[in-house]
From TrEMBL:
This is Amino acid permease/ SLC12A domain-containing protein. It comes from Microthlaspi erraticum. Belongs to the amino acid-polyamine-organocation (APC) superfamily. Polyamine:cation symporter (PHS) (TC 2.A.3.12) family. It is found in: Cell membrane. It is a multi-pass membrane protein. It comes from the Eukaryota. Keywords: Cell membrane, Membrane, Symport, Transmembrane, Transmembrane helix, Transport.
Length: 493
């Protein structure tokens, strides 16, 4: 088990000292907490070149979070299909309080406490040790890659009505490959380009729904919102919960980019706050306008149906705009997710959990090896169906979130006076209580999962349990080089 390094806090900053046997880690020059993860006796790697790379500011960070979590209301149509308008609307109002707000708050606290690219991997390592930190990194990276495999599929689904040849066969496979390569190249060219693209794509994706909402007002019939699973044999809870969960999670993914953020102690909490409002509103208003302005036919509410809703409410031009926005939104989600996945691998390599090659950066400051690995996973998984991908990634993501909740509470208990630039205004008991509702929700989602998806997810977890000892063996044999970057604190066993 790795211990936090002991040191007094900087007297000039008037931070309190802790006199317990297990003291909090020392602060860096910027006042951030340091944490070490054992990586053997390998020498430190050269200082990172990323210090000269332009950092991400609030606006692009807001839209990167927006795309990590949402990207707009594309893909939420299944909530209406599964449960009807009333439960769909209530879901997007209540679910953020159960899941999104607690996860965003924990991300703000832990991300400013440990502002480096390992993100949640470092959080878990600091509380539970490097073995469990690696498991966190494995399941989160895998769930991120599975998530990213959705976006080329959704992109083509939205284009299929206009270009039928993309519906299947070799043209569809070729289109997925070309799209993945093109978007991967944008990630390679730099995070500042990705952030700028996220802002432009985000504005373009949100605007048609703002227009649709205003145009639907004269056609709204509020009684249509009160229908629950009309003409269907009850609620499909598995589809309903998985769709809600998939569209309102991944707030912690931005933590793996913390090392690339300008003044993360202030920028990260602000960006999470603004993004939370943006995401929730981008879901509620389209569902209200679509279900309130049109007679309900639940079987039609599936991926891509908002384009048809737009045509009915505003005309063909609005439908085409929504269709184009859906396509571009999937590009934005792909870019944001791949950035987080690849920088997570870089952060793990900088901590000595992965071979040094994963810490290499291109001349644009991007982790090119991590980008290639993530892109390869996307291509390999793109043959799965939408529902299978969502269910599988949700289960893997849930296992990682359980580790995060445990790490959050344990660090609150063990190091209550450690520097936390952003701190949730609750004590240890409040921290525990805050984690109970999302943990219960995880149990419900697992209970409603089907056996096939559960078996695949369990197999993936088992691979991670075996992979970490194998990598330690490789390190011990000297077959690959593992080391800790010199800009990180000294590592302590």
């Amino acid at each position: 088990m790795t211990e936090l390094s002991s040191s007094s806090l900087d007297s000039a900053s008037q931070k309190p000292r802790i006199s317990t046997g297990n003291q909090p880690p020392p602060l860096t020059e910027t006042g951030h907490v340091n944490i070490g993860v054992s990586a053997g006796e390998a020498p430190p790697s050269p200082a990172r070149p990323a210090d000269k790379i332009r950092k991400i500011t609030v606006l692009p960070l807001v839209f990167l979070i927006f795309y990590e979590v949402s990207g707009g209301p594309f893909g939420i149509e299944d909530t209406v299909k599964a449960a009807g308008p009333l439960l769909a609307i209530l879901g997007f109002i209540v679910f953020p309080f159960i899941w999104s707000i607690p996860e965003a708050l924990i991300t703000a606290e832990m991300g400013t406490m440990f502002p480096e690219n390992g993100g949640y991997v470092v959080w878990v390592s600091s509380a539970l040790g490097p073995y469990w930190g690696f498991q966190q990194g494995w399941v989160k990276w895998l769930s991120g890659v599975i998530d990213n495999a959705l976006y080329p599929i959704l992109f083509l689904d939205y284009l299929e009505s206009g270009i039928p040849i993309l519906g299947g066969g070799i043209p569809r496979i070729a289109a997925i490959f070309v799209l993945t390569v093109a978007l991967t190249y944008l990630n390679y060219r730099g995070l500042s380009i990705v952030g700028f693209a996220a802002v432009l794509l985000g504005v373009f994706s949100i605007l048609p729904f703002a227009v649709m909402t205003f145009m639907s007002i004269p056609k709204i019939e509020p009684l249509r919102w009160l229908v629950v699973s009309k003409k269907m044999k009850g609620v499909d809870w598995n589809l309903y919960l998985n769709t809600l969960f998939w569209n309102l999670n991944y707030w912690d993914s931005i933590s793996t980019l913390s090392g690339e953020v300008d003044n993360p102690t202030k920028t990260l909490p602000k960006a999470l706050f603004y993004a939370l409002f943006l995401v929730v509103l981008s879901y509620i208003f389209p569902v209200l306008s679509g279900t309130g302005a049109l007679p309900l036919d639940q079987k039609l509410w599936t991926d891509g149906y908002f384009a048809d809703v737009g045509k009915v409410i505003g005309g063909a031009w609005l439908g085409w705009w929504i269709q184009a926005a859906a396509a571009t939104s999937n590009m934005g989600m792909f870019l944001a997710e791949m950035s987080s996945d690849s920088f997570q691998l870089l952060g793990m390599a900088e901590r000595g959990m992965l071979p040094d090659v994963f810490a290499k950066r291109s001349r644009y400051g991007t982790p090119w090896v991590g980008i290639l690995f993530s892109a390869s996973g996307v291509v390999l998984l793109s043959w799965l169906s939408f529902q299978e991908i969502v269910a599988a990634e949700n289960l893997l993501y849930c296992s990682g979130m359980v580790l995060e909740f445990i790490a959050f509470v344990k660090l609150r208990m063990k190091y209550p006076a450690a520097s936390r630039p952003f701190k949730i205004p609750v004590g240890v008991l409040g921290s525990i209580l805050m984690c109970i509702p999302p943990t219960v929700l995880i149990g419900v989602i697992v209970a409603f999962s089907n056996l096939k998806v559960a078996a695949v997810s369990l197999a993936a977890v088992v691979i991670g349990l075996v992979l970490q000892p194998c990598l330690k063996k490789v390190e011990k044999k000297g077959w690959l080089k593992f080391s800790v970057s010199s800009h990180l604190p000294d590592l302590m066993a």
